[in-house]
Amino acid sequence: MSDPTDYAPQADGRPDPGEVCWAWVPYEEDATQGKDRPVLVIGTGTAEDDGERVVACLVMTSKDHDRDEAQEEAAGRHWMDVGTGDWDREHRPSEVRLDRLVVLNESDVRREGAALDPGIYAEVLAARAALRG
Fold first, then answer.
1. What is the pTM (predicted TM-score) of this model?
2. Which has the closest alpha carbon to 109: 13, 22, 7, 9?
């Protein structure tokens, strides 16, 4: 997996660190079910079992978790506001979940939505690192 601090968006159709892309993400409570959603790519690498390129992603949502922050924190879920971008057709404010890393095959990640602002990307990585201790 690449160093997650490498901000490297390239408009080439491949998911790169700093980009918000779309993918089917399994639910935590039942990996056989999931939802198509935006993800923030924070790293890339190669799968050990088959050599396919993989991407490390943080799950995103347009749901505002500020209103239920205490409940989310009690459940071990930590969110950070990242603003709006072209990844959402309605340009709704988005949040990224700092404590849930999802590793996906590159072939399962679609549609470059947009690149996150480099300063906000750095803040996300710093907040994730602080949370992890």
1. 0.90
2. 22
